[in-house]
Amino acid sequence: MPANWCPFDPGSGHVPDHYDVYLYPNDFAAFTLDSPPFSPEPGLFKTTGARGATDVVLYHPNHTLPPSQMTQAHWRKVIGLWTSRYAELARNPDIQYTYIFENTGVAIGVTMPHPHGQIYSFPYIPPYIQTELDSGAAYMHDHKTCLYCDVLTGEKADGRRIFWENASFVAMCPFYARYPTEVAIYARRHVGALPDLTDTEATDLAEIIKIVRMKYDDLYGFPMPLMMIQRQSPSKGEHPYFHYHIDFYPIQRSKEKLKYIAGVESGAGTFLNDTVPEEEAEKMRRAEPNQLTAADRG
């Protein structure tokens, strides 16, 4: 097998010879839809089992193309695939939460440079998601408003941490940032998940994702190692207190240094962020390019 062979490349025999975006079944699936739903262990050791789905989303056929260099039109195709897969999995009675994410960069642990993300669909709600849901529910109970809408209102009133916005979304280095140059993209309208977006909103989302990725890669002159996390409502039930947003967790704290998730973060759940969101937002404002060209729009 050639040294640079990649199963995600057209012509590999694993994917179509021609594709724009493609949903690829994970070769090392952590969950499968035909797994037993429950373990035979009783009581304390009873589990949900590994009944779910793990997909790889191939963003582009070009093996070496950074996500930041994909056109806005191509990002719109990725969003379309995310949305259709989320809606499909939500109809499965075994799926409780569909988690769309991307790991990028060798520093994150990625061994496959081909531009791609992943979709994990769980038979339960993951613990961090449940904590966020509980916080949103408690806030709405106490204040009769959406926590995220209020955060967005407060950030817009302050203005210092917002570095890009369009008609549908706002990008900011939020006051609660835990990672260096952490970014949150909030939907302006109160929506819970990707299928709730209008076509115009989905197009605006493609634009702002591209802008954020381009600015990240300009900060230090190389593709930023990061995690991109979609925050959406669970597949089942009503969650009026939840608000669609995307989190970006970059681990580069300077051109030469990485941010390590060490003892205090991993063991205590307390993040020590040695950057200031207001200063990081200013860095993101200055990062070029500041607008899309006609070629970027595709």
Task: Give a description of the structure.
With 298 residues, the protein is an alpha+beta fold. The chain has a single domain, classed as HIT-like (HIT family, subunit A, 2-Layer Sandwich), CATH 3.30.428. 30% of the residues lie in helices and 17% in strands. The chain has seven helices and nine strands. The chain has helices spanning 72-90, 127-143, 147-158, 199-219, 263-268, 277-286, 294-297, and strands at 22-25, 53-58, 97-104, 116-122, 162-165, 169-172, 183-187, 226-231, 245-250. Strands 1-2-4-3-8-9-7-6-5 form a nine-stranded antiparallel β-sheet, sandwiched between helices. A hairpin with a 3-residue loop joins strand 5 (162-165) and strand 6. Helix 1 packs across helix 4 and helix 4 packs across helix 6 (277-286). The longest helix is centred in the last third of the chain and has 21 residues, at 199-219. It is globular. The chain starts with 21 loop residues before the first strand and ends with a helix. The model has no long low-confidence stretch (mean pLDDT 92).
Task: Give a brief outline of the structure.
The chain is α+β, with helices and mostly antiparallel strands and 298 residues long. The chain has seven helices and nine strands; from the N terminus they run ββαββααβββαββααα.
The H-level CATH homologous superfamily, spelled out, is HIT-like
How many domains comprise the coordinates? Answer: 1
- Low-pLDDT ranges: none
CATH topology: HIT family, subunit A
Roughly how many Å is the radius of gyration?
19 Å
Beta strands, count: 9
Mean pLDDT figure: 92
Name the helicity range.
25-40%
Which structural category fits the helices and strands? alpha+beta
Q: Assign the CATH architecture.
A: 2-Layer Sandwich
Q: Strand share of the residues?
A: 15-25%
Principal-axis shape equals globular
The major pleated sheet works out as: 9 strands, antiparallel
Name the helix and strand elements from N-terminus to C-terminus, one letter apiece.
EEHEEHHEEEHEEHHH
Name of the CATH class: Alpha Beta
Distance between the termini: 35 Å
Spatial order of the strands forming the largest sheet: 1-2-4-3-8-9-7-6-5
Oligomer: single chain
Q: What is the count of DSSP helices, taking H or I runs of 4+ residues?
A: 7
